[in-house]
Amino acid sequence: MSQVTQTETKAPLPLPEGVRGFASDWASDQRTFKNVSWGKAMMWIFLLSDTFVFGCFLLAYMTARMSTPVAWPNPSEVFALNIGGQEVPLILIAIMTFVLISSSGTMAMAVNYGYRRDRRKTAILMLLTALFGVMFVGMQAFEWTKLITEGVRPWENPWGAAQFGSTFFMITGFHGTHVTIGVIFLVIIARKVWRGDFDTEKRGFFTSRKGHYEIVEITGLYWHFVDLVWVFIFAFFYLW
Amino acid sequence: MTQPSTNTTGPAIHNEAHQEHPIKLYLVVWGLLFVLSICSYMVDYIGIHGYLRWSLILLFMVLKAGLIVAIFMHMAWERLALLYAVLLPPILVLVFVAMMVSEAHYVLFSRLTFFGTGP
After folding, report:
1. Residues of A in contact with B34 (CB under 8 A)
2. Nearest-by-Cβ selection for A69 from B45, B105, B117
3. A10 lies in a domain?
4. Residue A184 within a domain
5. Is the pTM higher than 0.90?
């Protein structure tokens, strides 16, 4: 996309703003997303498709919960932890939420330092983000272990509607997989940042394309999306 | 809000906008997300029930999601062409929700009618 033959030496025409800009961008018979690189646009479109995947999971959960006459287990009690002889409702899930939000914060700052070409800070913040991600997955593994030892299975559980287990494992499992993939993605890009690939515009091993700091923002888009999905899971599955 | 500065070194005709904003903005949003998360946790901790619970959960959820998409994912600074392409299609999921609500009611009705209080 970046191999553009420049036939015009003047500055580009200004793009119209607002709704007029929306109409002219889509009707231009050229690239639609004018100031967005193909990499970023593709990540957004992938995230849109992923939105539908998680949307369908949450819909399936809603349908299962609404169509059963058996009482749904109370998530507030199911996910309570015994701390100092006291049952604290939903505390692990709250901590997981804070960890994931913190990881989003460090990621946003990594993107910022990336565009400032601060190699060291970008890499450290990305690794910190990955560390938060690992913490999240670790706590999720703890939660799964706890529930499985208490007798939760995809087909039964000790507290109520049998559909609880299957929706729980499906939704949190799929989200945890996304977090794990995100951590791997972060570590790979952080390594490249640390090595200075984007300062020397080193060509990628697989794509042979020149690397840019924009990949940090694209990684960030994916990571924030994982956080975004958790916001919806937290609201609908754990709090509802 | 500051406008994203454009990359002046690239060869592309329409230069791709780089998202550069002050770090403080991210810290403020981070803080807001923490506060909103505490609020939604308190809804459960205090034990609010009924319509108030559901509307509070939805309110905090929408505010958190909005902050993440608008600031962290920089959607607030993108052109409308991308914003509409990404944010409008998920609204169609609500149509699906309406269909499945009606379906779930029907399934519940059949279960109660033909199986008593079965599965």
Report:
1. 98, 101
2. B117
3. no
4. yes
5. no
